[in-house]
Amino acid sequence: MENWPTSHDRVLAQRNAEGWMFLIEAARDLRTTGAIAPSSGALARLLTDPVQDQGMRSLNVLEAGAGTGSVTRTLIPRLSPGSRLDIVEANARFASRLRRLVRTHPRLVGHGERVRVHHALVEQLETGRPYDVIVSGLPFTNFAPAQVETIMSRYMELLHPGGTLTYFAYRGTRYARALTASRAEARRHRAVEEVLAAYQRRYAVGRWTVWGNLPPANVWQLRRPLSASAPAALNTTAGVAQ
Fold first, then answer.
1. b/e code 170-190 from CB counts within 10 Å (16+ = b)
2. Edge-to-edge strands, sheet with 84-89
3. CATH superfamily, domain at 38-241
4. Separation CA 170–CA 127 (nearest Å)
5. Cα 148 from chain centroid?
6. Interatomic CA distance for residues 34 and 25, integer angstroms
7. Closest CA to 80 of 145, 132, 149
8. Is residue 153 left, alpha or beta, with left meaning phi > 0 and alpha meaning psi from -120 to 50?
9. Residue ranges of the domains in the chain?
């Protein structure tokens, strides 16, 4: 217990540093950063639940758009022995921070080769292996509809049959854009939502709302079918996370 205040202060300092880094990167390019604050613990847990749900089975996991690593820090302890994690991040400063996180994470001491950080666009990622779980933190509503289609299609290609994709979308962004953005920007936003809705109709197996995030977010879970048969029905009882 004597070390708790020091550890607690260290965690708070880390969170504050992440927050400032997000604000700085958002000021540089909000389109690709996509947020003004790191993901909350509740959001990170929901996004990474499919990894924990697999139990002790060794997995190939991909995290895309990891930012400063707020989800990565939740994900790493949930990896079972023998699992591999690829992290892809397009922002060079975030990628550098993620490499430092991997080098210093206590759960990876002596096993750092299990986790690799790629400074690249996810649609250009080539690792030569399919994935059991993909965790996406990409800001889809900031992208062009064609790019979102390319990324979602690539995700499905990268997944094993039966593999799971989780991603989130901030609540209320359509209404905010309608009030503050140009008509062209509002049309682009609606078109992106239509692309995502098509994938949700075909592949979604669950959706939850995280109110304890800035801003609140919906978490979607999609699954690549085991065969060419019809996709599983969506679990329409939406969960709520604080």
1. bbebbeebeeeeeeeebebbe
2. 115-119, 84-89, 60-64, 131-136, 159-170, 217-223, 204-210, 239-241
3. Vaccinia Virus protein VP39 (3.40.50.150)
4. 30
5. 14
6. 9
7. 132
8. alpha
9. 38-241
Give the Cα separation of 99 and 201 in Å (integer): 36
* Residue 126 backbone class (left: φ over 0; alpha: ψ -120 to 50; beta: rest): beta
pLDDT string in tens for the chain (242-residue length):
334 344 444 444 444 444 444 444 444 444 444 455 677 999 999 999 999 999 999 999 999 999 999 999 999 999 999 999 999 999 999 999 999 999 999 999 888 889 999 999 999 999 999 999 999 999 998 899 999 999 999 999 999 999 999 999 998 765 556 566 688 988 998 999 999 999 999 999 999 999 988 889 999 999 999 975 545 555 544 455 54
Q: What is the dihedral of CA 73, 85, 206, 225, to 10 degrees?
A: 180
CA angle 33, 165, 216 (to 5 degrees): 50
Residue pair 159/130 in contact (Cβ under 8 Å)? The answer is: yes
Place of tokens 């927050």: 19
pLDDT at position 176 is 59
Backbone angles phi, psi at 232, to 5 degrees: -65, 150
- Taking the C-alpha atoms of residue 174 and residue 151, their distance in angstroms, rounded to an integer, is 21
Q: Which helix (H) or strand (E) holds 170?
A: strand 159-170
